Amino acid sequence: MAAVTGELAGRVALVTGGTRGLGYEIARAYAAAGADVVVASRKAEACAAVAARLWEETGRRVLGVPTHVGRWDECDRLVEAVYEEFGHCDVLVNNAGMSPLYDSVDAISEDLFDKVLAVNLKGPFRLASRIGARMVAAGRGSIINVSSVAAVQPSEAEVPYALAKAGLNNMTTALARVFAPAVRVNTIMPGMFLTDISKAWDPAETAKRFAEDVPARRGGRPEEIVGAALYLASDASSYTTGSVLKIDGGYAWAAG
């Protein structure tokens, strides 16, 4: 069993896209820090497996809730499941995202465009608005949106995704004011991380980008997102709201 530090003892954290990649590392870190955790993703089997694994590692209560965050009715069901099981939610991490490939900008279908904006922006808005209002009533809370450096430095291969993530950065600033002063709203803006998605990257092109464009000269390890996620979830960030925290090895010129 992993050591529980108690940094987030007594708190409940909801992490969307929490069964793999950065979301999994965040959920795992929160459980190890003493929080009870809800992980949400589209696949029920993955939710159940991760919930069981984190409970086994940390001894914390972990609930897996299969959810398509691009659909508001499923977002609403997720919120009700969290409050029915735990009675409160102290930390919301809007991490779920998608960026499907396309041949050219003019070939992007309406269906693809709508799906990308739904998962990356529409769903996070719904969850943040519903849970944020309850956090205000409870007198505290932290909402953490996981954006991307594409929001400020987009490539030709991720235009709808970049639009959605730019909107997520803007939403952070807006909701930080809407839910102030009880609730803090911040964004983590990752660069190129070596998650399972990176396995599809061309090795030669990736090595070239790291060498030429990333001052750190490498991609991020998934566990390197944990420090920021713990900081923004905990009382250590009590005077931090409306912020965009760039974690990208120095890749993006702009900060958000």
TrEMBL record:
Superkingdom classification of source: Bacteria
Matches recorded under SUPFAM superfamilies: NAD(P)-binding Rossmann-fold domains
UniProt cross-references to InterPro entries, sorted A to Z: NAD(P)-bd_dom_sf, SDR_fam
Pfam families tied to this protein: adh_short_C2
Entry's family note: Belongs to the short-chain dehydrogenases/reductases (SDR) family.
NCBIfam families found in the cross-reference section: PRK07231.1
Name of the protein in question: Glucose 1-dehydrogenase
Species per Swiss-Prot/TrEMBL record: Sporichthya brevicatena
